[in-house]
Structures are given as structure tokens and as C-alpha cells.
UniProtKB/TrEMBL annotation, chain A:
Residues 35-49 have a biased composition (Low complexity). It comes from the Bacteria. This is Extracellular solute-binding protein. It comes from Paenibacillus anaericanus. PANTHER family: ARABINOSE-BINDING PROTEIN-RELATED, DIACETYLCHITOBIOSE BINDING PROTEIN DASA. Keywords: Signal. Residues 1-25 form the signal peptide. It holds the Pfam family SBP_bac_8. Residues 27-51 are annotated as: Disordered.
Automatic annotation (TrEMBL), chain B:
It comes from Paenibacillus anaericanus. This is Sugar ABC transporter permease. Its main location: membrane. One of its GO terms (cellular component) is plasma membrane. Residues 91-307 form the ABC transmembrane type-1 domain. Coiled coil: none annotated. PROSITE patterns: ABC_TM1. Keywords: Membrane, Transmembrane, Transmembrane helix, Transport. Belongs to the binding-protein-dependent transport system permease family.
Length: 563, 320
């Protein structure tokens, strides 16, 4: 499950970069004048931090365990930052396999100045490649100290040092974003007259009614329910039931928020078997895509983009490309709305993440860093509220406006401008999120990131969105969902670092999950289904489930007590 | 002749003259020696020096540490490898797909080469050759997407079969566990047949045309000539290639299976390399991965020696 981490961060970047993209419209001619303005603010920043900009220019290298568009050498925000701090950053994003890349780096013993190791920090820590940051921060970085004050102890690795500064530190009013959900095509909701859907059975009925009414969409067969099963993305099949049973996005076990007790639900008859059984019924009724277990990720996205898929369980970041494609084709009502479903009415849905951060997953400094003090001061400057606004919103009046109430907003033209990938890349390199940052609200009530600002969220809604939300009596989709349960201080389980044996357990369970659940879903008869289920349970129980549970119970207990 | 002279002189001053003779030969072949130096260096750097890393398999290796400072664990990782239920499974898959690939690959490329050799229209020959070897240059990532689209429910294959009324409902070939090995074999033939045929075509070009002329005089037809002249002339090459390929039998491939597999066929699709990636490298278990690598190498050497011995017995050409 450790992959979740890397991909959540990817998701976030993608979300941010998409939303970040909204500034700068037609101002190119005025650039020099504007830069002067911003350099004024920058001197303020530097004064408050007692960093002198007249220091020698320095170039720092930054490797990111996050594939993406090549970062241009110059882009607007970076140039402004260089002007203010004298620091130029040379970015290198991941190409290929991270294990190999880090393996070569470690074996060669040569590291870039800064590293964003994602969920692979432990490899670098084991190799002694990262610099402990706590003393540097105490001494030189008041902004960072403030930003991480509440999380200071939790950020420490097992050896007591802080090596990584995680992103999206919940600040002010924490941001609420929907990631895992059961999704339904907006057109289906519209056609059914915006019914209230709270259980999985109701959801399936709505899908069934729609497909009976419209067996084809745009000349192709309607696909009532889609499942993404390609490679490790299979978790959308094998962890979906935890949500139906009233849990958040944990991993293989569900935690009782009151007692902190763990339940291993993968082989639970009332949870997993119930879900697979329902899917099996759906399969035999022809409600699930026949290719669900054969297609790869690209084919999955292509199907969603075609507008003929009515529903699926997935996490936002996995199908953003499809959403963008639907938008581009102007099939706005074929896009998806999130639902929080449970097995039955008595179960309270708990889909939302508890505001927390990915500990041990963030910006790090390598032991080869040219000038650690200068670097930490640079990062500290970037983490000041003023610089964070520059990194996310941009330059006032150029990239965003401030209305009479002090709210940050973007004009429709700016929003449109930022939708283009090219514009975004030349603006913030789609990379600014990868420095320590806050998520939530500034002291003045504005959000740190445009994508979190309610005005900006609502501005992206279509007519159908507005009708859907009106029908359910809310303003934004996140309001449809129950807020994260703050009693879950441990959240999430998947961020617990695994021992080597548990990693093997995890991989083995993944392999069993790849083999059996798909067979259960496509089983032709109840007997066959039960046969596969029994075989699955027997095989899983051959693994050291108890060892996994003991370890995780202890870790959850530790977190519940100390966090 | 040379040998006789050498052995004769050996009787008189055995050691010294042997040495002198060797030196003489060295000097005579100095150009050849010079030319071979880069390859010797290549082999030393990329094949012999890394053997040092085999030590990793016998210790609890930590990345970035000095190889001599790790804890020695003996055969722990080999035991783990052989005791893993999955290992036998992936070994079976690897062997099955390898053998299918070997047989399909050899037969198809030899047949294609034979047929191309018979084509008299140069233009047509060139076109066929180009078209058949182009897929070789497509990466498996692209090829896999092509294949999956072609065999999908609304793909070309199903459309054609439906139109021809050969099937009443579209079938999903890629989801048939039993068909997966054969799909691997077939797609591999599609991708590599043209490329592999090149070497045979080259060999055919070397055959002395007078042999064909003589056969024609004796009244041999096309097939007779193929059977009695072309094939026997190519036999040494075929045997050499076969021996070399048998040595590589545990390399059934990685990308092809990795990209084409899905949850329905996963039991038949995982090869040793995929297993090592998942349980070794991806989990930073380099020692485990090395142990698997050693196992593969040892098996390869054994198979190679056996194949070579067999060729020797049969009086065929061989590697050494």
C-alpha cells in the first residue's frame, strides 16, 4: 500500500497544478514592471528572515521521485524566487523506475543537493544519504519551525531525526477534498431525478434502471459498472468494501475509532465476501464491464473518457485524465459525481481523510548538499506565507485578484489560461508544490491553494453540478460527505512503515488478491463463487496474518496514544 | 603440418621451443589480437567484474554499504527462493513460454527466410522483409497496447470473427488463462520473425549457387532444392543458434508478460524475472534478487553445456 503515498502526492500535485494554472493572462508586455513590484515584496520577506539577498548566487539541484513534465529552466515563479533569494534550482524529475534510480544513486554515493524521495525515503535513510534537519531548522528556519510545530515529534524517523518535510501541512481550516468514492455519472443522477443514494444496493439499482432505459450511449454499449484492475491499481477492487463497511482509506484492516481495535477485513465474510458476492451477482446480470479484468490502465481511462461508463469505485487522482478528456469533448454531464455509500443505512460513511500529513514523505536534503545552512534558509523563505502565496496564487493582479472582501479570486480568463498545460508549465513549472507548504487557510481566511478556495471550486462547476448540489442542499461536493473522524489520530494505516517480512506479506497478499477476487466476481454459479472464496481464505490464512495484525495493532496503539 | 613440426621439436627442447612457437603465433596474429581487445575488456567489465557482486547473495546486503561489511547469512536466500510456493510456479511459466517461444521463433523465422529466398520479385521481397521486421523496433509498451486493442471486445479480431459468423459472441482471448502462453508465443513471432529471419537470409546468400545449378541439372524442383541444399547448408548456423538460445531458456522475457498480463491470467503469466522484480528489487531485497540471478546463471550454464555435448555427439557444429 506504500504506493498510495506516492500517488496521493502525485494526485495532489496534479490537482494543484490544474488549479494553479489560472493566472497571468495577457500581461506579458508588462512583465518587467511587475517584477519590480514583486521584488519589493521579496525584500520584505528577506528582511523578516534576516537573509540577505546580496549573498552569492547559488544553484541547487533537486531530484524528485515524481514523474511528470520536464521542468523548464526558466519559468515565471522560479525567476521571481531567484530574484529574491539568489537561489536557482535545477530540477530533475523521475524517469523510469525509482528503485533503480535510487539504487544507482546510493551505490554511486553521489546525491543531488535536495531530494524528494516520496515513499522511498527509508532507502536513503538506511544508506545514510539524508541530512538530519532538526538542528538546522531550530537554528535558521523560523517559518518551517512554525509550520511544523504541531507535527514535530511525529515527523521523526525511527532514529529520532527529522529527514523529510512533508507537504500540505493542515493549517487554519483544513482543506476537504474527496478522493476515494463511488462515482456516478451526473447524467444518471439527472435522469433519475436526483435521488438520495446512500447504500450500494440503491446505487446499483439506479445504474440498472439507467442501462435498461439507455442500453447504448453514443452508439456504444453502456457500461453500468467499471472496475479498474490493472497491476497494483487493483486496490480499487480489493479495498472498496472497507468504505461500504464504514471505514476510511486505511489498508487491509479497519480500525474501530473508539477502541483502536483492528479488524482484518480482507477475509471477513460480512465485509469482503458480501461485496464480492454482490459484484458476482452484478457480473451475471451483465452490469459489469466484460473487459474489467483484462484491460490495462489506458483502456480504463479510454472507457471512462468515452462517456459510456455509469459508475465505478475509484480515487480522484486515478481518473483525472478521463475527467479532463470528457471536459474537452464538452461531455460535461458524462463526468462523475462522488457518493459516499455504505452496505446499509445503519452504517455511517467515513470516506474523508482525517487531516494529516504523509510523515517521512517530503522535501529532504542530501549529505552532499553544497551549503546546508543556505539551503534551509532558502526553504524557510519559500515556506513563509508571502512566498507560499506567490508559489500557489502567483503575483497579485497579474495572476489573481483580490476582491473588496479581501478574497483571492481569479477571473474567468485567468482560469481558462491556467487550464492549458503549456501555460502552467511556463508559469510554475508544475513543481512548486514540492517544497514544504501548508494546506488549508491563511490567517485572512483565504486558502493557500487556488484549488482549495471555495470560490474557485464553485467556479469550475457546471450547470448540472449546480443542480445536483442544489437538489442535495449543499454548495460543494465535499459537503456531501461526512467530515473525517478526528478520533482516528492514527490515520492512515498504510503510512505505517513495514518491516521486510511484512513487505513480503504485503506483496504475497497482493498476488492472492490479483488471483482470487477477479475469479469470484466472474464465477458462473454460487458454488463456484464459494469455492473460490474458500480457496482465497485458506491461502490468505497460510500467510502470517497474525504477525501483520499484531504489528499494526501495536503501531496504531502507539499513534493513538502519542499523536 | 604445423602441429607435427611442433611436436617433433618438443622432443628436443620441450619447454623453450613451445614458448617460442607460441610467441611466433602471437606475433603473426597480432592484428586479430588487437581487434579482440575491446571485446575482451567489454566482457571483463560487464560480465566478470560483476561476478564479485554474487557475494551479495550470501549476505544480508544493505544498499550503499561496503560489500565486505555485511552480515553473512550463508544460503538463507537460496532456501527462501526454493521454499517459496510461487517460485515453482514462475519457473513452470518461464520454461513453458521459453520453449514455446523457442520452437515458434525458430520455425517461423526459418520458414520465412526460406520463402523470401524463393521470391524472385525484388520489390515484393523487400516489402515483405521490411514489413515483417518493422515490429521489432516497436517497444513492448506500444506493442502491448496494440495487441490489447486488437484483441479487445470491439477490436479487429472479434469484429472479423463475428462478421464471418465463426463466433456468435465476442471472445476475450487475453483473459483465457490457458491461451496466455500461446498468445505470448504468437505475439512474439509477430514482433520478431522478420528480424530473426535476417541472419538466415544472410546464411542463404553464402550458399554456393553452383550447388543449385547442379541440382537443377539433376532435375530437382524448388522444394527438393530447399530440402536438400538450403536447409543442410544452414544446419550449422541453426544448431549454433539453438545451443545459444537453450542457454537463455530461463530468460522468457519480462516486458511482454508484464505488459500483457491481467488479473485473469496472472497464474500463467508471471516469469522468474517478474517474480524477482516484485519480491527482490522492488522490496530492496538485493540479496534475494542476486540469489535468483545466480540460480538462473547456473541453470543456463548447465543447459548450454548439455546442448553443446549433445550437438557434439550428433556430429553437428557446436560452440566449442
Amino acid at each position: 500500500m506504500s504506493k498510495f503515498k506516492a500517488f496521493t502526492s502525485l494526485l495532489l500535485t496534479a490537482v494543484m497544478s490544474v488549479t494553479l494554472l489560472s493566472a497571468c493572462a495577457s500581461n506579458n508586455g508588462n512583465e518587467p514592471a511587475k517584477s519590480n513590484e514583486s521584488s519589493n515584496t521579496s525584500t520584505n520577506v528577506t528582511e523578516t528572515n534576516a537573509v540577505k539577498t546580496n549573498e552569492e548566487p547559488i544553484t541547487l539541484t533537486y531530484f524528485l521521485n515524481a514523474p511528470g513534465d520536464n521542468v523548464p529552466e526558466h519559468f515565471k515563479i522560479a525567476d521571481l524566487i531567484t530574484e529574491k533569494t539568489g537561489v536557482t534550482v535545477k530540477y530533475e524529475r523521475l524517469v523510469g523506475e525509482i528503485e533503480q534510480k535510487l539504487g544507482v544513486m546510493i551505490a554511486g554515493g553521489e546525491y543531488p543537493d535536495m531530494i524528494y524521495p516520496g515513499d522511498k525515503a527509508h532507502m536513503l535513510i538506511d544508506a545514510g544519504a539524508l541530512l538530519p534537519l532538526e538542528d538546522l531548522i531550530e537554528e535558521h528556519a523560523p517559518n518551517l519551525k512554525k509550520l511544523y510545530a504541531n507535527y514535530w515529534e511525529r515527523m521523526k524517523a525511527t532514529d529520532g531525526h527529522i529527514y523529510s518535510l512533508p507537504n500540505s501541512v493542515p493549517t487554519g481550516q483544513p482543506n476537504r477534498a474527496i478522493s476515494p468514492a463511488f462515482w456516478i455519472q451526473k447524467e444518471v443522477l439527472k435522469d433519475a431525478g436526483y435521488p438520495k443514494i446512500t447504500t450500494f444496493d440503491q446505487y446499483v439499482d439506479v445504474l440498472k434502471n439507467y442501462v435498461q432505459k439507455y442500453p447504448q450511449i453514443d452508439g456504444q454499449d453502456t457500461i453500468p459498472f467499471e472496475i479498474l484492475t490493472y497491476d497494483w491499481r487493483l486496490f480499487t477492487l480489493t479495498t472498496a468494501m472497507q468504505f461500504l463497511a464504514g471505514g476510511p482509506n486505511d489498508s487491509r484492516a479497519m480500525v474501530n475509532p473508539e477502541t483502536g481495535e483492528l479488524t482484518f477485513y480482507q477475509t471477513d465474510e460480512k465485509i469482503s465476501k458480501r461485496y464480492y458476492e454482490k459484484l458476482n451477482e452484478m457480473w451475471n446480470e451483465g452490469l459489469i464491464d466484460k473487459e474489467a479484468f483484462v484491460m490495462n490502465y489506458d483502456q480504463y481511462l479510454a472507457k471512462l473518457s468515452s462517456g459510456r461508463v455509469l459508475g465505478m469505485h475509484d480515487q480522484t487522482w486515478q481518473f483525472q485524465d478521463a475527467t479532463a478528456a470528457l471536459k474537452q469533448q464538452d461531455k460535461l454531464d458524462r463526468m462523475f459525481a462522488p457518493l459516499q455509500l455504505t452496505f446499509d443505512e445503519s452504517i455511517k460513511a467515513d470516506y474523508m481523510d482525517v487531516p494529516s500529513i504523509n510523515y517521512g514523505n517530503g522535501w529532504s536534503m542530501s549529505v552532499d548538499n553544497k551549503d546546508p545552512v543556505r539551503t534551509i534558509k532558502f526553504i524557510d523563505t519559500l515556506a513563509s506565507d508571502e512566498m507560499q502565496i506567490l508559489r500557489s496564487w502567483g503575483v497579485k493582479d497579474e495572476d489573481y485578484k483580490v476582491d473588496e472582501n479581501g478574497r483571492f479570486i481569479r477571473t474567468p480568463e485567468q482560469r481558462k489560461w491556467f487550464e492549458s498545460n503549456e501555460n502552467a508549465l511556463g508559469w510554475d513549472g508544475k513543481i512548486m508544490w514540492f517544497f514544504p507548504n501548508a494546506s488549508g487557510t491563511l490567517p485572512d481566511g483565504n486558502n493557500y491553494w487556488p484549488g482549495e478556495q471555495p470560490e474557485e471550486i464553485v467556479a469550475n462547476y457546471t450547470e448540472t453540478d449546480k443542480k445536483i448540489l442544489e437538489a442535495y442542499g449543499v454548495k460543494t461536493y465535499p459537503e456531501l460527505f461526512n467530515p473525517g473522524n478526528t478520533k482516528r489520530k492514527y490515520f492512515p494505516i498504510w503510512s505505517i512503515e513495514l518491516t521486510e517480512d511484512l513487505k513480503i506479506f504485503d506483496q504475497k497478499l497482493n498476488d492472492l488478491n490479483k488471483k482470487y477476487p477477479p475469479q469470484m466476481v466472474v464465477a458462473k454459479s454460487k458454488e463456484q463463487f464459494n469455492e473460490y472464496w474458500d480457496e482465497y481464505v485458506t491461502s490468505v490464512n497460510k500467510l502470517d496474518v497474525k504477525g501483520w495484525m499484531d504489528y499494526h495493532s501495536a503501531e496504531v496503539k502507539k499513534r493513538q496514544e502519542n499523536w | 603440418m604445423e602441429l607435427k613440426i611442433e611436436s617433433a621439436s618438443m622432443k628436443h627442447k620441450p619447454k623453450q621451443s613451445q614458448f617460442v612457437a607460441d610467441l611466433k603465433r602471437l606475433r603473426r596474429q597480432k592484428l586479430l589480437l588487437l581487434m579482440s581487445i575491446p571485446f575482451v575488456i567489454y566482457v571483463i567489465v560487464f560480465s566478470y567484474l560483476p561476478l564479485w557482486g554474487w557475494l551479495m547473495a550470501f549476505q544480508k546486503y544493505k544498499l550503499g554499504s561496503n560489500i565486505m561489511n555485511n552480515e553473512w547469512v550463508g544460503l538463507k536466500y537460496f532456501r527462501e527462493l526454493f521454499q517459496d510456493d510461487m517460485f515453482m510456479h514462475v519457473l513452470r511459466n518461464t520454461l513453458a513460454m521459453s520453449i514455446i517461444n523457442l520452437v515458434f521463433g525458430f520455425v517461423s523465422s526459418i520458414v520465412l527466410a526460406l520463402m523470401l529466398n524463393e521470391v524472385r520479385k525484388v520489390f515484393f521481397k523487400r516489402i515483405v522483409q521490411t514489413v515483417s521486421y518493422l515490429p521489432h523496433f516497436i517497444s513492448w509498451v506500444v506493442a502491448a497496447n496494440l495487441i490489447m486493442t486488437i484483441f479487445s471486445l470491439d477490436g479487429v479480431v472479434n469484429t472479423i470473427l463475428l462478421k464471418l459468423h465463426l463466433i456468435s459472441e465476442p471472445i476475450l482471448l487475453m483473459s483465457e488463462p490457458k491461451a496466455f502462453w500461446w498468445m505470448i508465443g504468437l505475439t512474439n513471432v509477430w514482433k520478431e520473425v522478420g528480424w530473426n529471419a535476417i541472419i538466415y537470409l544472410a546464411a542463404m546468400a553464402m550458399i554456393n549457387p553452383s550447388l543449385y545449378e547442379a541440382a537443377e541439372m539433376d532435375g530437382a524442383g524448388r522444394f527438393r532444392k530447399m530440402w536438400s541444399i538450403t536447409l543442410p547448408s544452414m544446419l550449422p548456423l541453426i544448431v549454433i543458434l539453438l545451443i545459444m538460445n537453450i542457454g537463455r531458456i530461463l530468460d522468457a522475457g519480462f516486458e511482454q508478460q508484464y505488459l500483457l498480463m491481467n488479473t485473469m491470467v496472472v497464474d500463467y503469466a508471471q516469469t522468474i524475472d517478474i517474480f524477482v522484480l516484485k519480491y527482490g528489487i522492488n522490496l530492496s531485497r538485493y540479496s534475494f534478487a542476486t540469489a535468483a540471478g545466480i540460480f538462473k546463471s547456473v541453470i543456463s550454464i548447465i543447459l548450454l553445456v548439455m546442448a553443446n555435448q549433445f550437438a557434439k555427439r550428433m556430429g553437428q557444429s557446436r560452440l566449442y
